[in-house]
Amino acid sequence: MFETGSLIVYGNSGICRVEGVSMKQQLGGGGQAMYYTLTPLFGSGTVYTPVETKVFMRPVITGEEARDLIRRMPEIEPGCCAGTDQRTLAEHYRGLLHTYQCESLVKIIKAVHLKARQAAARGKKLGKTDQQFMKRAEELLYEELSLALDIPKDQVKDHILKTLEPAAQ
C-alpha cells in the first residue's frame, strides 16, 4: 500500500501523488473498500481508485535508477515492429506502453527515431501512429525522469543528450 505523499505511476494517468487513503462506498452497492485519492502531477483532476485495483501502479523510479537508465540507453534495442499495417503497429506500441516501464518507453522512442531517419532518407514522412506513440512515450518518460532527477521536464531531453555525449565520442 502506498503512503500519503507518495509519487506513483498510475496506469495511463501517468505520475500521480497519493493525496490520501480512505474508506469509500464502492460503486454498485458493493460495500466499502479502501480507496486512494490521487492527483495527476502533469494533468488535472482527481482520481479515486480502489487500493486493490487491477490498474497498474508502481513507485516512481529513484534518481539512481534514472541515471542508470540513461547510461544504458545506447544498449537498449529499439522496439521495432515487424508488421507494416497501422493496426499491428498500434498494438505493438500499446503493448510496450502498457508495461509501464521506462525501458519500454525508450524502446518506442528509439524505434520511432530510427523509422524517422529511414523515412527521411527515402524522402517520406513519419506516419501518424508512430508520431502519436512517440509523443506519448516521451511525455511519460520525461515526466518520470524529471521527478527522479529533480530537473524541469522541458530540460530532460537535453540532459539525456549531454549525459550520453561523452559516450558517443
From TrEMBL:
InterPro entries to which the protein is assigned, alphabetical: CarD-like/TRCF_RID (IPR003711), CarD-like_C (IPR042215)
Domain of life per record: Bacteria
Pfam family for this entry, one: CarD_TRCF_RID
Domain CarD-like/TRCF RNAP-interacting positions: 2-60
Protein known as: CarD family transcriptional regulator
